[in-house]
Amino acid sequence: MLPIAKEKTDSKLFLGLTITLGASMLMPEYIAPLFVFGLYIHFMKVFKSSGRNARMGDVCKLFFVYTGYMLLSSIWSDQHLMSALVSLLWMGCMLSMILLGNIINSEEKLKSAITAVNISAGIIGLMAIVSVVTYNIFMYVYHHYHERIWLFPNPFYWELNDFVFDLLPIEVINYKFRSRASATFDNPLILATYLVIATPFCAFGSVSFRRSKSRKISRVCLLLALGGLVCTSSRGACVAIAVAFVIMLFSNKKVFKKIFPFCILLAVSVPVVLLLRYRNTKVTDFIESNSQRVGIWKSCWQMFLDRPIIGMGAGTENIHQSLINEYNIPRTHAHNLFLEMIVEGGIIGGMFVVAIAVLIIINIVRICKAKDGKYRHYGFLYIAGLAGFVVMSTFEFTLQSAKELMIFFFLLGFIEATYRIATDKTQVASDEITIVYEEVPDDEEVKITQTEEVKITQTVE
């Protein structure tokens, strides 16, 4: 791992980034973004003092224009305030992409940042496992659930959320999900979305990290993250992580040998947990859930046809009110990310989304091809994470909460940082350069060498 020297300004900045990556997802939804906002303020001060500019990258620039358009949609939205606030939240969480793209400027930092994500995913997965195991133990022993015998809180911050949500001027639903794990997230589907993105990082670390200690930590975190994901009992998440793992399995033989045992464990665990879910849930609830989802998709498609060009406006509240008042469906969103985005932003918003997706794919291809495939394994990691996210998004609106937005922009930030490292486009501070002077005769030039971490082709301001 990269040594953190106290006297180095950029090293302290990177330490703040690893804390953000590792600790923010352990916090409630209304606290997690504060890590990003606080770090960004410090980041701007450091870069300004060193004469550097915070570069956004093409994907981030296009995302900024898209979120600006969605902020503009609050004008024609029926929920003006909510549309504006949701757009501003997207902009705020997008700062995490800028942070990763600029602060991570070497492969050592990249691996350290991935380790921070892995440890966070492992802790959250452990909490999810404990909550489901204790719940089922009590259900088996007592046969009937009572509040007073509950051992582990699930969601973990339910009591605090209940207090905070009561202070808000709008109604926020705060459910307890006893039989399905939520851990530090507000509901099982949000946790599942997070783990679908984070688990491939754990798999990557358990195979690609050279240091034995880092590999072992990542393997433990992979096991816990997989267990936590299974404990969400999300059928869509199980399909999504299977797709992500298949992509990683066939990246090379080394990955196949080391990851395949985890796939067998996952294949055995999924039916067991789904059986537990069926046991704890009425069959009629499953039938109603599936039929309602189809009804939601049909209703949302009709909403899109009613306002096809500019959409209904940012945020789920417009769709929520329409589903309740016009279609008599008590649900809050489209349960499909892509349908949700075209209903909110119309064809114009959809064009932005397609353009962003194309740019992301282009950057990943460039990563895979750079320096004769040196960073190809990172490219497969990002393809796996995005593929799992896309599959999960088919069944769920996966960018509805602050922490979902953050982990998504973390992923895009990793892609941007790797792209810059692979193509020698990183910015390096003066305190990260090692210059060695050698005594030479007067008629020869002075030789200057730099560490492998900083290349001569990089711009040093």
Distance between the termini: 26 Å
General form? globular
Q: Indicate the percent of residues in helices.
A: 55-70%
Using only C-alpha atoms, the radius of gyration works out to 23 Å
Major pleated sheet? 2 strands, parallel
Uncertain runs are 1-7, 434-461
Sequence of strands across the biggest β-sheet: 1-4
* Mean of residue pLDDT values: 84
- How many β-strand runs? 4
Structural class: mainly alpha
Which percent band covers the strand fraction?
Answer: under 5%
Total number of helical segments?
15
Task: Describe the fold and architecture.
With about 450 residues, this protein is mainly α. The radius of gyration is 23 Å and the shape is globular. It has a two-stranded parallel sheet with strand order 1-4. The longest helix is centred in the N-terminal third of the chain and has 36 residues, at about 105-140. The protein starts with 8 loop residues before the first helix and ends with a strand. It is built from 15 helices and 4 strands.
